[in-house]
Amino acid sequence: MAVSKKVAQTVIKEDKFYTISAANGKVVEVADYNTEDGARIQLWDNANAEWQQWNFVRAGEGVYRIQNRFTGKMLDLYQGGVADGTAVHQWAGAPASSQLWVVEAGNDGRVKIKSNLAGKCLDVVGMNTENGAGLQIWADVNGDNQHWVIAEVTRKPKAVKAAAKAKAEAEAKPAEEVKPAAEKKAPAKKAPAKKAPAKKAAAPKAEAKPAAEVKAAAETKPAAEKKAPAAKKAAAPKAEVKAEAKPAAKKPAAKKSTKAAK
């Protein structure tokens, strides 16, 4: 009884703020510090942020509206549902029974938080223990995912920007650890591709020079051969002209010898 009394006394202090912790130590928060009606309620590591802290506003004997410190909005049942699995979200304060909760103290310092409308317990969807696990209502099965620890906030909460930054860095850290590993593999694959073209490009250059020399030699040799025949042909006619000229010179000499004999 002493424990139950202590829990009840803690809850009824309306000028205080509290965390609502699951069995694994994660706390109930407004997802992504969203201030809109209908924002999702989930579990997350305690970052001492205002959207993870709650005020219990008395609405009757043992009945409370549970108000978020950052958004000012209340824990509420989606569309006023009463069935197992009805999601819990936040909504602006209203005189609606879907926003009324009963805190039942256990004998181990933990409590059950039950919907006054549905009579069902605040419950973690699928008994999930990871960050981002959603909340719902479910029939009382006395499971660990239906037991909560309500603890007064004794530290000054982080400024909104600082808390948001810390949460964003925590979310981004796993992605950053994976990303470098992928980047290390990518250059290893690209490196061979860069070296291979360099070798291929060098090989044609080395072969191009001998090919040019052979081509030049081939083009030069026929030109010399064409000139040589032309020179021989030009000389041949000259020799034939001289040979014909000698017989013409002998004819006059023969005539002179004939006259002398007469």
What helical percentage do the residues reach? 40-55%
Structural class: alpha+beta
The total of helices stands at: 2
Terminal residue distance: 185 Å
How would you portray this structure in words?
43% of the residues lie in helices and 21% in strands. It has a domain at 2-158: Trefoil (Acidic Fibroblast Growth Factor, subunit A). A hairpin with a 2-residue loop joins strand 4 and strand 5 (63-68). The chain is an alpha+beta fold. The protein is globular, with a radius of gyration of 52 Å. The model is unreliable at 1-9 and 178-262 (pLDDT under 50). The longest helix is centred in the C-terminal third of the chain and has 102 residues, at 160-261. Strands 4-5-8-9 form a four-stranded antiparallel beta sheet. Strands 1-12 form a two-stranded antiparallel sheet. A two-stranded antiparallel sheet has the order 2-3.
Report a brief summary of the structure.
This protein has 262 residues and is α+β, with helices and mostly antiparallel strands. It has a domain at 2-158: Trefoil (Acidic Fibroblast Growth Factor, subunit A) (Trefoil), CATH 2.80.10. The protein has helices at 2-11, 160-261; strands spanning 18-21, 27-30, 41-44, 54-60, 63-68, 74-77, 88-91, 101-105, 111-115, 121-124, 135-138, 149-152.
